[in-house]
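Journal club prep — side note

Before the paper discussion, L.F. wants everyone to see what a predicted structure for a comparable chain looks like in token form. Sequence:
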Amino acid sequence: MSPRRTIARSVTVSGTALHAGVPVTMTLSPAASGSGVVFRRADLNVDIPARYDLVSETRLGTVIGQGSAKVGVVEHLMAAAAGAEIDDLLVSLDGPEPPILDGDALSYLTLMESAGLREQDQPRTAIRVRKTVTVESGDAKASLLPDESLSYSYELSFPVIGEQVFAFAFSRAGFKAEIAPARTFGFLSELEALNKMDMAKGASLANTLALDDTGVINRDRQRFADEFVRHKILDAIGDMALAGVPLIARFQGRKSGHATNNALLRALFADPANYERVEL
């Protein structure tokens, strides 16, 4: 039996929300076995379980909500929790998003590791994909295929960046070294329009790889030559973690994003023949 895991003690960090641009304080706390990952809007006194069916928006980040209470840009933290194989976690926030920190998952992962990990008294369960599930939207495509272990592959194509391809067989060590450090990225040409929509107000050259028509502006912040496709896999790991339990499947993405990822989980769970629940 592989036991569920949570963190051993509470840890707190403060920073800036990526889109809202406001200061946010976040506390990660141990959670009861079987509770899963829960986001608490402490300022609103509302708990929001981290689940695919509570995703309310997917524009430039995955947003979960209960009623009028929402938490945005959950994918980086969810990727870190999945990468550390943490099953139960309480995430308390006094604002609308986790602080963006370094624009990666490694910042959150390091915070979780500093809290220590504690085994729970229940076994880990997983969703084993039994039938291939695919969703497409325009030229974006994402699939979950049956496999004996969890892996991700992604094909990216963007102006300036060009085409990048990366494949990743999941392991905790591999996630920390190969995926977690990959920062989010954006195009300067879109920044003014995003700001007018109250988005990307907390983006900076310290937490975001910024691109113009010549390439990466803050190249000194770039950690991998193919950091962009690695970050897309990071996003996919975070979005797939909203299944609520680990997946045993092969994820394949091509030009896909948060909307496609969420649609993929909804399609998976729409038919019980697509999957089975197993104990790890």
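L.F.'s comment for the group: The longest helix spans residues 227-240. Keep this in mind when we get to the figures.
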